[in-house]
Design a protein that fits this description.
CATH topology of the domain at 5-84: Helix Hairpins
Distance between the termini: 78 Å
Largest sheet: 4 strands, mixed
Radius of gyration: 36 Å
CATH class of the domain at 5-84: Mainly Alpha
Strand content: 25-35%
Number of strands: 15
CATH architecture of the domain at 5-84: Orthogonal Bundle
Shape: extended
Strand order of the largest sheet: 10-11-15-14
Number of helices: 9
């Protein structure tokens, strides 16, 4: 007995149209022949998935199937793929095929349509700006240079000197070339005409047949306080221009330089504070820098190396909520690399003053030493 369609698509019998389509796209992508080359089982599964979707995505066929099963479909002339809606199914498969191969297949499958109505370029564009560490934290003004596209004035955006074009001989004006792979027919964007269906025979001398020109511009933007690395700033109406005069937006990608002393993580600031071992021993209070000035750090007696101390509201102001983060000071205990004879004598006296005996074994370790000696007997 054949597996029923709801099981094939792994959905319940009360699934709505959106759930059916979502399940179909997920499974079709998983079992697509081009992702499972040479796998006959995956190929058969792919066929079954498409058959199930063709029935369950059609209200009339689904109603017949729910009441009478596959036999009911056959009696009413719905013999699996015999009258399937290729415009719907192949259009969906085109999107799936595009996700398998990237963006290289304009229409996807043979009935997926042509690329001739696609824009020559995206209206939105991106530029970059680099900020110093403090500029990102406190905000500033920056002038950003960028280039944008607009239809060529000489040829009115046609790319042709005489504003005419000829039908592409490679795809015969369809914008796509077709080929078969197994039981499927695929379409690929025509490389000769780039999916337009036409070619320029007399290129414009200004744009060299591209149909657009590239212009340079500058814009001064306000960098908000607290912006972070890889954030984007939108500048409305500064993007590319199309044939109808519509203009997209400019998106500015922010890069922030690192600082020599401070390290930023989201809205928090980290700093390593070098302290001499005597300062820890004495429990001193020391001054440390913050991004806005300075603060006092009280070292507790017995502080450990790498111990962290949190200073609330000494971090970065969040670019959205305007709440201040924290500063985290991590101490790094430093010891002298060399000591003089006089310093050694002073340290020895201090050690003796604390009652620490170094020339004789501590009684609490005697049993440990005896145990270790026994390992080698």
């Amino acid at each position: 007995m054949d597996i029923e369609y709801y099981e094939i698509l792994e959905i319940s019998k009360n699934a709505d149209a959106a759930e059916i389509k979502k399940a179909y796209r997920r499974l079709a992508l998983q079992f697509h022949p081009d992702r499972n080359q040479g796998d006959k089982e995956a190929e058969e599964k792919f066929k079954a998935i498409n058959e199930a979707y063709q029935v369950l995505s059609d209200e009339q066929k689904r109603a017949t199937y729910d009441r009478h099963g596959k036999a009911g479909l056959d009696r009413q002339g719905f013999s699996h793929f015999s009258d399937m809606n290729y415009e719907d199914i192949m259009g969906d498969l085109g999107s799936i095929f595009e996700s398998v191969f990237g963006g290289g297949f304009g229409g996807g499958f043979s009935s997926g349509g042509s690329s001739r109505n696609q824009k020559k370029y995206n209206l939105d564009l991106e530029a970059e700006v680099t900020l110093a560490f403090n500029e990102a934290i406190f905000g500033c003004k920056k002038e950003v240079s960028f280039s944008y596209k607009k239809p060529c004035d000489t040829c009115d955006g046609t790319g042709s000197k005489d504003k005419t074009s000829a039908t592409c001989k490679e795809c015969k004006g369809k914008g796509q070339v077709f080929y078969r792979q197994g039981f499927m027919t695929f379409s690929q964007t025509c490389s000769t005409c780039q999916g337009k269906g036409t070619v320029i025979t007399n290129p414009c001398s200004t744009c060299h047949g591209k149909s657009f020109t590239t212009l340079q511009d500058k814009v001064t933007i306000d960098i908000p306080e607290g912006i972070d690395n890889n954030n984007r700033i939108r500048v409305a109406g500064k993007g590319n221009i199309d044939e109808r005069g519509s203009r997209g937006d400019l998106y500015i990608l922010v890069h922030v330089k690192e600082d020599e002393h401070f390290v930023r993580h989201n809205d928090d600031i980290y700093i390593e504070v070098p302290v001499f071992f005597t300062q820890v021993a004495l429990g001193e209070t020391i001054k440390i820098p913050t991004i806005r000035g300075e603060a006092e750090l009280e070292l507790p007696l017995g502080a450990k190396d790498k111990q962290q101390f949190i200073f609330k509201k000494e971090g970065v102001k969040n670019v959205h909520t305007h709440q201040l983060g924290s500063m985290i000071a991590q101490i790094s205990i430093r010891y002298p690399k060399k000591i003089t004879k006089e310093q050694k004598e002073l340290l020895t006296k201090l050690q003796e003053n604390f009652g620490i005996e170094t020339k004789h074994k501590d009684e609490k370790f005697e049993s440990v030493f005896d145990k270790i000696k026994s390992w080698f007997n």
